């Protein structure tokens, strides 16, 4: 059954990132870090992984002199996340029977 | 993964989505307090205008007298500042208890949504006062505040939207019944705030405390 799961979502933090980006138009790095309670390096590596499979898109902008990096889910990412949730739900339904 | 694990996993994801998009640190207690400030303010304002010196139920003053007008504006501004201050203070406290900050994408969205109708309404009311048309000040306060709550409700608890709809209804009713502005104002900013504050306090605050 588990082979139906998306490899990109095997990691919990990656799944959480996708969940946040599915519920919001965009989310910035620091807000994600605070919400998920993870370290800079940890978050950055998971974001990189999601970017690599083109599930998320990165936007860089300047607020004063500081760079502000925000992320949004791509269409592909949204679809993959929805499918993952569906798989979870189906699994729960099957186990009930 | 077994059944319970799967279900708790799904629940935690849904919860995270909700938490990321909505400002859930809004304090119900601050609503109760804001309602109390409004009622005290309304009582002070009522005493300013109607006084207790005259017999036979005549007013001592009218809103059109400049001295009275200034006092009313001072009372209303004090109530507003105290309410906003309390809301920020108690929400920040609640956020700390939840292990979250008060400044996040959800609270920014909330402020942006609330800001447009609130600033528009505030300026509109000031224009009405400056032009000496006082009749619709109280209804306009209620209507614009209600619109702000309906807009902001998207970024926080659903109850806020309900409160907004009731404020708008009260404002429209107040516009139809001139002369009862202070009563509708007290009902909207006082009684409704206390009522919804209690609902939100028992529904959400106590879980955190």
From TrEMBL, chain A:
The Winged helix DNA-binding domain, residue ranges: 13-92
Residue stretches in coiled coil: none
SUPFAM superfamilies per UniProt: Winged helix' DNA-binding domain (SSF46785)
InterPro entries to which the protein is assigned, alphabetical: ArsR-like_HTH, WH-like_DNA-bd_sf, WH_DNA-bd_dom, WH_DNA-bd_sf
Top-level taxon: Bacteria
Transmembrane segments: none
Gene3D superfamilies, alphabetized: Winged helix-like DNA-binding domain superfamily/Winged helix DNA-binding domain (1.10.10.10)
Signal sequence coordinates: none
Protein name per its UniProtKB record: Transcriptional regulator
Organism: Parapedobacter defluvii
TrEMBL record, chain B:
Keywords: Membrane, Transmembrane, Transmembrane helix
Spans traversing the lipid bilayer: 21-46, 68-90, 110-130, 136-157, 169-202
Top-rank taxon, per record: Bacteria
Protein name per its UniProtKB record: Uncharacterized protein
Native source species: Parapedobacter defluvii
């Amino acid at each position: 059954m588990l082979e139906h799961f998306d490899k990109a979502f095997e990691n919990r933090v990656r799944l959480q990132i996708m969940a946040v980006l599915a519920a919001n138009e965009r989310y910035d790095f620091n807000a994600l870090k605070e919400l998920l309670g993870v370290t800079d390096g940890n978050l950055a590596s998971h974001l990189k992984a999601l970017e690599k499979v083109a599930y998320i898109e990165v936007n860089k902008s300047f607020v004063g002199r500081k760079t502000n990096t925000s992320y949004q889910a791509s269409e592909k990412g949204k679809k993959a996340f929805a499918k993952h949730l569906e798989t979870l739900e189906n699994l729960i339904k099957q186990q009930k029977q | 993964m077994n059944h319970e694990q799967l279900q708790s996993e799904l629940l935690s994801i849904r919860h995270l989505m909700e938490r990321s998009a909505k400002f859930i640190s809004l304090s119900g207690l601050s609503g109760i307090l804001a309602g109390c400030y409004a009622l005290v303010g309304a009582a002070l304002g009522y005493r300013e205008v109607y006084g207790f010196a005259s017999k036979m139920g005549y007013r001592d003053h009218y809103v059109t007298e400049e001295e009275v007008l200034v006092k009313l504006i001072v009372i209303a501004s004090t109530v507003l500042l105290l309410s906003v201050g309390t809301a920020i203070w108690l929400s920040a406290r609640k956020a700390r208890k939840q292990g979250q900050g008060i400044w996040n994408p959800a609270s920014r969205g909330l402020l942006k949504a609330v800001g447009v109708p609130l600033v528009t309404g505030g300026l509109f009311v000031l224009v009405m006062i400056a032009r000496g048309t006082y009749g619709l000040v109280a209804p306009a306060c209620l209507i614009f505040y209600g619109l702000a709550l309906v807009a902001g409700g998207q970024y926080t608890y659903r109850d806020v939207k309900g409160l907004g709809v009731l404020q708008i209804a009260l404002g429209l009713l107040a516009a139809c019944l001139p002369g009862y502005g202070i009563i509708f104002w007290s009902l909207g900013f006082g009684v409704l705030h206390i009522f919804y504050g209690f609902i939100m306090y028992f529904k959400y605050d106590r879980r955190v405390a």
